Amino acid sequence: MSLGRRGVGWAGLVLLALALSAGCAGLNPAPPRALAPGDWLAPPDPRPLSPAELQQRLSRARVVLVGERHDHPGHHAIQLQVLKALAAQGPLVLGVEWLEQEAQPACDALSAGKISLEEFRAQVQWDKKWGYPWKMAAPIFAEVRAKGLTLVALNAPQSVVRQVAAKGLKSLTPEQRAEIAPALNLDDPIYREKVARQFAFHGVKDPQAQEDFFAAQVVRDETMAHNLALRLYPWPDGGKRGLVLAGAGHLAGDLGLPPRIARRLPGAKPLIILPVSPKGAQAMLEATHLPAELLAVSTPAPPPPPRLGLLLRVKNGGLVVERLIPDSPAQKAGVLPGDLLLAVDGKPLTSPKGIHDAIKAAPFAPHAYLLERDGRRITIKITLSQPVPTARPK
To answer: Per its UniProt record, what Pfam families does this chain match (predicted)?
Structure first.
C-alpha cells in the first residue's frame, strides 16, 4: 500500500516538474527570429504569415493597393509577387500611378498583345514622363502582356496637376477641368494635415500656395480613383478585382487613395500593403495607428538619388524655377525662384530629365548651369553631395 502511495507520489512529482518546466518556458519564451526579406506581417501580430495565410488574405480582397518607393527594386518585386497571386484568381484590373491617362491606348494595346514591351515603353514616353528605371517596372508590364490583364493608366495629366499647384483649381479651363476627376473632395482635414508635412520640404510657405499644393495632391488621388473605378464597373457585379500600384504616400494610413476608391465602389474595403525594411516593420508593429493591413519585408533600399532641390516647369525655351527646397544644393549655390534654367554644361534643356542626362556620367562633379535672370544670362556651378555610405554589419 505504501509502495502504491509512493508510486502515486512520484508520479505527482513528475507531473509537477513538467508543469513547472512548461510554466518557465511560458514565462521565458524563445526570442522570435529577426525579420528578413520575404516575410509578410499582419500588424499588430509580429508572427510572419505562412504562404497559405497570405494567399487567404489576398483572396478575400476585391481591391488591393500596394505602395512603393519609386526607385526601390525590392518594392517592385513585391508588387510583382502580389500581381501574380491575384491574377491567378480571376479577372484582374491593374492600375498604375506611373502613367498618365493619355497613355491608355498604349495600355490597351499591350494588354491585347499587339505591341512589344519596347514599343510600349516608347509610346508611353516612359523615360521622359516617368523617368525611373524601366528595368524595375518591365517585369510587371511583361506579366500584363503575357496574361492579357487589363492595364489602366491612372494618373492625371501632369501639366494640369502642375497648374493646380501653381495657380489653383480656378485657373483651369473647362477643357483642363474635364481631364481630371469630376468629384474632388477637399474637405479632408486628416489628409490635409498629412500633406502639410511636405510644405517645408518643398518650400511652400504662403497660405494660398499651401492650399493649391493640397488641391494638386487631391487631384492626383481623385483622378486615379476615378480611372480605376471606371474599369471596375459594373461594381460589384462585373466580377473583376482591382490592383493599384502607387507611391506609399498615396495610401499609407488609409488616407489619400483608399477612401476615394471606397467612395466610388460601395462595399469595397481596399486592402493596403506597404513594403518595408525589417527595421521599419518592427517600428510599425509597435505603432499606435497601423499604416496598413499587411507589411511586406523588402530587400535593402538603394541609396537616395542626388537631387538639386528644384521644382521646375517647362517654359520659354527652358525650365522655370518655381520653388527651391530649403538648404538644397541649388539654393546654396545661389539659384532663385523665377530663374530660367537654359542649359547644363552647354547642353540645352527641354525637360527636367535633361538635367539628369547631362550629369549622369559624373553626378557628383561640379557642373555649369546656365540661367537667365532679369534679362541677364549667368552661369552658376553646382556640386551635388555624395551620399554617406551606410556601415554594413561584419
So the answer is: Cofac_haem_bdg, PDZ_6
Tens of pLDDT, residues 117-144: 999 999 999 988 888 899 999 999 999 9
- The residues facing 324 across adjacent strands are 310
Which phi and psi angles does 31 have, rounded to 5°? -65, 140
Write down the architecture of domain 40-297 according to CATH.
Answer: 3-Layer(aba) Sandwich (3.40)
User: What residues form DSSP beta bridges with 348?
Assistant: 343
- Where along the chain do its domains lie? 40-297, 310-382
Q: Which CATH superfamily is domain 310-382 in?
A: PDZ domain (2.30.42.10)
d(CA 386, CA 394) in angstroms, rounded, equals: 23
User: Other C-beta atoms within 10 Å of 242: how many?
Assistant: 25
Residue whose C-alpha is closest to residue 229's, from 15, 40, 63: 63
pTM, whole model, 2 decimals? Answer: 0.78
- Cβ pair 352, 307 in contact under 8 A: no
Between β-strands 310-315 and 340-344, what pairing exists: parallel, antiparallel or unpaired? unpaired
